[in-house]
Amino acid sequence: YRYANTDPALLNPPYDRKKLNPEIRRDKDDPLAFRPQEVQRFAEEVLGLNPTIQVQAPEETVTHDLMRQILQELRAIHQLLKDQNKA
User: Above 80 in pLDDT, residue 53?
Assistant: First the structure.
């Protein structure tokens, strides 16, 4: 609970923009609960996390080139077999 806005002396401490604020509790033994919007706000504003997933193209390697050639050869074989079945 390092980032959570909690205080052993207070059941529901006041809102703090720099911390993760839990839902209001009725009893000190209630578990801490966090709204998804609050977790998102904290992640973006305080931790600086970006929710966007960025897909990057893999680097071209000899293996990629070899796999591309194998695929091309398999397609040619497939086409040959289809043509033979038609004849």
Answer: no
Q: How many CB atoms lie within 10 A of CB 11?
A: 13
3-state SS, residue 40: helix
* pLDDT band per the 50, 70, 90 thresholds, residue 42: very high
Torsion over CA of 6, 11, 17 and 19, rounded to 10 degrees? 10
> Structural domain boundaries of the chain?
1-55, 56-87
Chain-centroid distance, C-alpha 66 = 32
Number of helices followed by number of strands (H, E) in the chain: 2, 0
Which of 2, 3, 40 minimizes the C-alpha distance to 18? 3
CA 31 to chain centre: 26
Instruction: Write the DSSP symbol of residue 66.
Output: H
Q: How many whole angstroms separate alpha carbon 24 and alpha carbon 19?
A: 15
